[in-house]
Amino acid sequence: MNKHALNFEGIVEFVTVADARGFSEAARRLGCSVSHVSRQVSRLEQRLGTALFARSTRSVKLTENGEQYYLRCQELVNGLSEANESVTSSQLELQGTLRISMAGSFAEQFVAPALVEFAKLHPELTVEVDFSSRRVNFIEDGFDFAIRYGRLQDSGLVARKLADRSLMAVASKEYLLDNGEPDVPKALAKHSCLITNNDTWVFEQNGKEIPVKVSGRFRCNNAKAIVDACKAGLGIAYMPKSSFQQSIAEGSLVPILEPFWTDNITSWIVYQNRRFLPLKARLAIDYLLAHFSEWRE
């Protein structure tokens, strides 16, 4: 057997640099100096006889050989972490950084506070939350999981149901006085609609979906901005009920088209389909699933 075959020195540093896309961030995650990380990776490259990274003053990218080696080593490091965790889980204090991507008012109002409580239970754990509706690459962007709602298209990901949601159509009294109130979803074609990420709204009647193509003067992927625009009389909004709770209670917005609202919308916990999921991510996911097990819109 090759005497270097079982030499694991530098592999953890290599995988962390690849995940973090940089030596400085890798050193921060590992809690050591940049020079230590660089030295370990350089020694690994010398043993292998090939460059694993293409380095420049602005970026660090995996070479072709580095890409292939990373795919194998990532599973190795994850498997070792899981083996360690399975032995010490009864006395383990979660450490490191948990990174989550999420978007929407539900995530802001309900999921983020739940993660705050989870962080309080694990004082050694750092929780980073990125609010963005963009599609994330879990490996390249370094996210452990994401919170998304609606229909999911990427079958390569694992999706766990977090909560069932209901949609609500609303408008301001001023808008309805000036433009009239639509009595059926198709009537929205004659109205100004406030669009988030999708200009096809789906309603329901007698168990059948009613898709309606809408248009309007204001488009934004932030729920609060849509609510503010709706209150200002710019048009009709159609989003999860939780987005409008306060506005409905104070009377600045009124529900419309209620017989046609759909409750077939789900919020999901989404993560990469991989063999080993870090314990910090598994425990956070289990915590959220338990927290929202009886949640209602």
TrEMBL record:
Residues 6-63 form the HTH lysR-type domain. GO terms for molecular function: DNA-binding transcription factor activity; sequence-specific DNA binding. The keyword Plastid does not apply. It comes from the Bacteria. This is LysR family transcriptional regulator. Keywords: DNA-binding, Transcription, Transcription regulation. InterPro entries: LysR-type_TF_proteobact-type, LysR_HTH_N, LysR_subst-bd, WH-like_DNA-bd_sf, WH_DNA-bd_sf. Belongs to the LysR transcriptional regulatory family. GO terms for biological process: DNA-templated transcription.
